[in-house]
Amino acid sequence: MILLVTPAVGFLPANVDMGVEEFKIGFALFCCVPTTLTSGAALIAQGAPNATVLSLMITMITNLLGTVTVPFVLKLVLSDTDVTLDAVQLLLKLVLLILIP
Fold first, then answer.
1. Are 67 and 95 in contact (CB under 8 A)?
2. How far apart are CA 70 and CA 101, in angstroms?
3. Rounded to 5 degrees, what are φ and ψ at 48?
4. Do residues 2 and 35 make contact, with C-beta atoms less than 8 angstroms apart?
5. Cα–chain-centroid distance for residue 80?
6. What backbone torsions phi and psi does residue 17 show, to the nearest 5 degrees?
């Protein structure tokens, strides 16, 4: 869900005039990336205080899936801006930097 809902929210700042182009693109990028361990644990702790292992597992899974989905979602979200993005090249770099080590 986190890999679908927040990127959908990224369409809003990418298509609304916020005055500064870099802020608009940065906010859209922020919406497309998965949550970090801290925010994932905080979100889970609100619903189930004893579910720290669950929060760690959910965060790790979404971050691993995000490695694959973010380049393509980001390309889609930023398609109406001046940013050109090669999603396959970005995916290969993310795999080399995140998944292989």
1. yes
2. 19
3. -140, 95
4. yes
5. 18
6. -75, 115
